[in-house]
Amino acid sequence: MPILTQVADAIATITLDRPEKLNALDPDHLHQLRAAIRSADSDPAVRVLVLTSSGERAFSAGADIGGTKVTEGVAEAYAYGLEQAAQAGLYIRLLDLSDLRRRKPMIAAVKGFCLGGGLEIALQADLVVAAENAQFGLPEVATGSLPGAGGVNALLRALPRHLAVHLLFTAERLSAQQALSHGLVSAVHDLASFDQQVQALALRIAGQGPLAVQMVKMLIDQSDGLAPGQWMQMAELAWGHLRDTEDRVEGRQAFAERRPPVFNGR
Q1: CATH number, residue 103
Q2: What is the rounded distance in angstroms from the CA atom of residue 47 to the CA atom of residue 204?
Q3: Which Pfam families does the annotation name (predicted)?
Q4: Which CATH number fits the domain that encloses residue 216?
Q5: 163 and 43, same domain (yes or no)
Q6: Percent of the chain, pLDDT > 90?
Q7: Residues with active-site annotation
Q8: CA distance to 29, 105, 154, 156, 217, per residue, from 221 (Å)
Q9: How much is the pTM?
Q10: Tell me: the pLDDT tens digits for 196-214?
Q11: Residues forming a β-bridge with 63
Q12: 224 is in which domain, residue-wise?
C-alpha cells in the first residue's frame, strides 16, 4: 500500500510509501492519498495530520508520469467529474486538495526532493517543515509543461514575487536553508532528529484546544484577502462560536488554577 496511515496521540501520520519511485504518485495513489486525508480529518480521535514520506531521498518527486495515461482530450475531460476526468488523463485535478475542505491542521514534513506535484501538495498543508536535505522546486518548464495544480499561484503566495518567478522560469530549486530564510518552511531540522521534531510539533498543536485550533484554521483559510471590516466580523463570529464551549471554560479554569488544561473538543 503506497499510502500508509497511523493514528496515535491524536495525530494521524499519513506516509507516502513509494521510495523506489521517489514517492511519485500516479492517479491510484492520489486517490488513496485523498481518501486518507478525508478519513483522518473526519476522525474525532484525530486533532492534527502529518503528511510525510518513507525514506530520506524524497518527500515526493511529483506525479508519476509513467503511471498516467491520456484517453481523451482535455476539452472532453474538462466537463467530467473528478473520477472520470482523472481516468481520461486530467489527473492534475487529483492534486488539488481544496475540495476536501479539511478542517484540521496538517503539517507537511519534507525530507529530500519536494518537486513538481509534490511541492503543490506540500504547499496545501498549513505548515511545512524541512529536513536539512530538502530541496524545493517546480521544474515543469524543463519538460515543456507547467505546474497544473495551482503551483504557480501557490508559490507566488509563499515566496517573494521575484524569487518565485525566478524559480518558475528557470526550474531551479531552493535548499532547505534557503526555503527557511524566505519563509517557505517554518523550521529546518537535521535528519537524525527530524521525525522526533515533527512529532513534537504535532503533539504541541494537538495539545491546544482543538475547537480553537479549527476555528483559527478557518480564519486563516477564509479571511485572507477580505477587507478589515469583513475579517473582523468573521473573527467575532468565530470567537462567539467558542465562547461558551466546555473547552474554553476548561482553558480559563486551568489557567486560573495554574495547571495544564484537559480539552475534550466540546
Answers
A1: 3.90.226.10
A2: 11
A3: ECH_1
A4: 1.10.12
A5: yes
A6: 70
A7: 120, 140
A8: 26, 11, 13, 16, 6
A9: 0.90
A10: 999 999 999 999 999 999 9
A11: 25
A12: 210-257
